[in-house]
Amino acid sequence: MKANWNSVVRAIRAQARVTYARQLSFAKRLQYVQLYLLSKIWYIKQTLPPLTIHIQQLTSVCSWYIWQGTPFKAPEGTGWVGPAGHRGQMLDTTSQPYLENG
User: What is the value of pTM for the model shown?
Assistant: First the structure.
């Protein structure tokens, strides 16, 4: 059983590496994982239950494929502001702007 899942992990990892070269957007990479990689894993899982180590390896492969090269960006219009001495308050984009003397 372990040898079978080792070959599945290797195949999924190889497929993710090949497909990553296609320069897909974040949304397309996520869709690819959901529709292609996970469907293969779920199909095999129905007949052969994986060990915890294999689940961890497959999670790592899917996460790598989805997130590699995608920097985190805060939504535009958000920032850290506040009155003097109160740094670290998250700006609510729906509220009125903070005025120092008013």
Answer: 0.60
